[in-house]
Amino acid sequence: MGTIIKSCITLAVISLILGLVSRFTMKPFFVEAQAYLQFANFCFLASITFLLYKIAYKTED
Fold first, then answer.
1. What is the distance between the alpha carbons of residues 7 and 11, in angstroms, rounded to a whole number?
2. Predicted local distance difference test score (pLDDT) of residue 37
3. Out of 3, 24, 47, 55, which residue is the most buried by the measure of CB atoms under 10 Å away?
4. Per the confidence metrics, is the pTM higher than 0.70?
5. Rounded Cα distance, 39 and 20, in Å
6. CA distances, 33 to each of 8, 19, 45 (Å)
7. Cβ neighbours of 35 (radius 10 Å)
8. Separation of first and last alpha carbons in the chain
9. pLDDT score of 57
10. Predicted confidence (pLDDT) at residue 60 exceeds the cutoff of 80
11. Residues 18, 29 contacting (CB under 8 angstroms)
12. What is the dihedral of CA 30, 31, 33, 37, to 10 degrees?
């Protein structure tokens, strides 16, 4: 469970950086900046959900 949370946060940070750079340079990398930012939002929400599940059910890694 911990590796899923860490990988979601890592993907979100990378996607957030790509989205911000794409937004500031006004040149899309493969897809528009909004898609990167929405994917980062999804990853952050998924990691929060898994973290709350881990806390609620006290699962050990």
1. 6
2. 93
3. 47
4. yes
5. 13
6. 19, 5, 19
7. 16
8. 6
9. 87
10. no
11. yes
12. -110
